[in-house]
Amino acid sequence: MKNSLDKFLAHSFPQFEMELKKEIRDSASLLTLPADTLMMDIGQKVEVIPLIVSGSVKVFREDEDDHELFMYYLGPGEACAITMICSAREGYSKIKAIPEEETTVIVVPITKLDLWMPKYKSWYYFVMDTYQDRFEELLKVVDGIAFHRMDERLIEYLEKNAEANQNPTVHKTHQRIAQELNSSREVITRLLKKLEQRGMVRVNRNQIELLS
């Protein structure tokens, strides 16, 4: 496993100091999750920090009526800032996280978060950059809800999905997209038809191809 950890660290976290990588090898473990497996649930006690080394993870909020609000995607070289905040306080998760495809993560014990902050500059900057990047993503979500029309939110959602999966074709049902955008299937279907008429997407069964 250590050889695999070395390869993943070199590829996804090349900025980490050698001593930090050694500590990660000694204290962390590798975990591979199939697509659509629950990686983190709301209310779950946070005991580890998952560092993504392959695959893609969708992070979202969900209410008691199963209404979802998509927040952002995580890819190789990234971690979830909200999970880090909960980890630092030994608290409970405020988000759900589900892999969009088979995803491998380096699982770091929460005790290492604060311990490594003053010890390794690369870890300190990684944590700070993670907070900033995710905060900016959350601002975009708030702006989208407050200021953007649903068609603009839909296009942005499709673009983020395509970028996260490195594939211009988004494999999701209209109902699933509606859930993640906190809308209705009828609205999403109508907007996709309009976007298709404008030459921006091609809609097929359970998949939408971005054309521009």
Overview of the molecule:
The chain has about 210 residues and is α+β, with helices and mostly antiparallel strands. The protein has 2 domains: about 140 residues, Sandwich (Jelly Rolls), CATH 2.60.120.10; about 60 residues, Arc Repressor Mutant, subunit A (Orthogonal Bundle). The chain is built from 8 helices and 9 strands. The strands form 3 sheets. A 3-stranded antiparallel sheet has the order 1-6-2. A 3-stranded antiparallel sheet has the order 4-3-5. A hairpin with a 5-residue loop joins β3 and β4. α1 crosses α2 and α7 packs across α8. The longest helix is centred in the middle third of the chain and has 27 residues. The model has no long low-confidence stretch (mean pLDDT about 90).
Total number of distinct structural domains: 2
CATH class type of the largest domain: Mainly Beta
Largest sheet: 3 strands, antiparallel
| Biggest sheet: strand arrangement | 1-6-2
Fraction of helical residues: 40-55%
The CATH superfamily label of the largest domain reads: Jelly Rolls
> Could you give the order of the helices and strands?
HHEEEEHEEHHHEHHEE
What is the total tally of β strands? 9
Query: What's the multimeric state?
Result: single chain
Q: Gap between N and C termini, in Å?
A: 42 Å
Strand content bin? 15-25%
- Unreliable parts: none
The radius of gyration over CA amounts to: 18 Å
CATH architecture of the largest domain: Sandwich
| Overall average pLDDT | 88
Shape: elongated
Q: Might you state the CATH topology name of the largest domain?
A: Jelly Rolls
Number of helices: 8
Main structural class: alpha+beta
